[in-house]
Design brief:
nine-stranded mixed beta sheet, Jelly Rolls, 2 domains, alpha+beta
């Protein structure tokens, strides 16, 4: 593993022109050091909880709890049929009280609130703890808990994550390492997205030998309260909270066009169709995708006049909408007999 590059005194312009433009992970030291949340956390765990509690409205929030035997790893049960934790809900204030109770135990349960939308549950949070780096429409989400480990996964978005309380260790893997990560099933997941079957902090390399290659490509960093990290689109990451009270605030956004459909849907359809073709046909379609989709040779219609490009030049919203309608009709048609 190699350390993630560290940046200091990051401004919105530096983030936009240097960090994000490089499309590489970056630690931004002290980015949110002046947040009231961070100042409260520096006074202790109780002070941190006391800062958040008055902001919380009474609406129940979902949270998870794993027994001490899980050692903080939120993952699957042994048979991969269900997670190794229980789900429940309660007002956020009650959860915060439970967090303090667990902090006093020698073998605590791992408990966590995950991805809590601040405007819905702590309406005053964003105004007091603001960040100018993400697009203005992006809302903060809170991850509150004790010493828990979130398995290797990826998000279909860009991510800036800010440590508000406690220390966090991030381990990142580039997207091209997917084949070395031994990802779990799509249809049964602990929290809605695929996770690696490998235990990062205790990997079984006899069972998962290619994971050694992923570790060679990994980047890692340990963040203190006030620090932040930029995780580029689709980078895989493992997040380990290291203290008995931890608060992370993250911002997800996707700059891609919203009117062209989901690349995830393309993957699902490809797994259904292309993957089941004979090997020679898969090779042919890989070449087609490289040329027409991934533009490996440049503009595939560059040699044609605009009026003759047809579907090769589709990019305007009306043309995209027309293509979507045609695809829907095609998918709804009965499969022809052969």
């Amino acid at each position: 593993m190699q350390p993630i590059k560290v940046w200091r005194d990051v401004t919105p312009a530096i983030f936009r022109d240097d960090i994000r433009a490089a499309a590489a992970p970056a630690v931004m030291k002290g980015l949110v050091a002046d947040w009231p949340l961070v100042r409260a956390a520096r006074q202790g765990d109780v002070a941190c909880v006391d800062y958040l509690r008055p902001m919380a409205i009474g609406t129940p929030v979902p949270h998870v709890r794993a027994a001490p035997e899980a050692e903080g790893r939120l993952h699957y049960g042994d048979d991969i049929r269900a997670p190794n934790f229980r789900r429940s809900s309660s007002p956020l204030a009650d959860f915060l009280d439970a967090l303090i109770v667990e902090s006093g135990k020698s073998r605590p349960d791992a408990i966590a609130v995950q991805g809590l939308a601040a405007p819905e549950h702590l309406p005053e949070f964003a105004g007091a703890n603001s960040l100018a780096i993400p697009p203005p429409s992006v809302i903060p989400r809170l991850w509150i808990g004790n010493a828990a480990k979130v398995a290797i996964h990826h998000d279909p978005s860009e991510n800036v994550a800010c440590v508000g309380a406690g220390r966090r260790r991030f381990t990142l893997f580039p997207p091209d390492q997917v084949g070395n990560l031994y990802m779990g099933p799509f249809h049964i997941t602990p929290a809605g997205t695929q996770v690696s079957m490998v235990h990062l902090t205790n990997p079984d390399l006899d069972r998962y030998p290619r994971f050694a290659g992923a570790l060679d490509a990994a980047l890692t960093a340990e963040l203190e309260p006030g620090d932040a990290i930029y995780i580029p689109y689709q980078w895989y990451h493992h997040v380990e909270a290291l203290d008995v009270v931890n608060v992370l605030v993250n911002y997800w956004w996707d700059p891609a066009r919203a009117d062209v459909g989901s690349a995830w849907d393309v993957l699902m359809h490809g797994m259904m169709t292309l993957r089941n073709l004979p090997p020679d046909q898969r090779r042919a379609w890989r070449a087609m995708f490289d040329h027409y989709v991934f533009l490996s040779g440049g503009d595939p219609a560059g040699h044609l006049p605009p009026h003759a490009r047809g579907i090769l030049g589709v990019s305007a919203p009306p043309e995209i909408a027309q293509m979507r309608r045609a695809l829907i009709v095609k998918l709804q048609q009965a499969e022809p007999q052969r």
